[in-house]
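User: Can you predict the 3D structure for this chain?
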Amino acid sequence: MSFSLLPREEKFFDLFEDQAEHICKAARIFKELLGAWDPRSPLIDKIRDVEHESDIITHDIIDKLNRTFITPFDREDIHELATEMDDVVDLTQGAAARLQLYKIDKITEELPQLAGVLLQATEALKNAILSLTDMSKSRRILDYCIEINRLENIGDQIQETGMGKLFADHPDPLQVIKWKEIYEITETAIDKCEDVANTIESIVVKHG
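Assistant: Here is the predicted structure, written as structure tokens:
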């Protein structure tokens, strides 16, 4: 018998599932954008649209949380899960916006690698969210969270490699500053996936 973690009548789970899909969609578009980089690409606006839709979903979750007297698990966990998931989309959109703002003409080798790690992390996150409907799958949920943690470590390594090349290859300090921020925003998006995974792990421990 499966256990529904989130109350169907309040549609919490449906909203979280929708949010998880938006996270994956933003990461997927970002990776596509870097594969054929053009500062005038319509994909930049597409990511911005996804970010706006994600904000609306987050607002709906918080609104429903405020109108629900009894929740199946801690209100703090529901709120944290919603805001952290939204942060992933915000940061992904932020990385794309910085590329356009800084008039980047050529993408480094490491940024698409980071984007690939981000996409994998969002896909693992989505699988973890989908599995929350059945707590008998707690081991599977935790495995997805462990995978996200592993990917976050890979992201750190890629960022360090990229930064090392910047200092070695770019004597122009302005270019270093620009790329440092782009790398950090992208890697922080991966970090936020790990934060979501940690929140999911906490929910599983409390209710598994």
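Helices lie at 12-35, 42-66, 75-101, 110-131, 138-169, 173-207. The chain has a mean pLDDT of 90.
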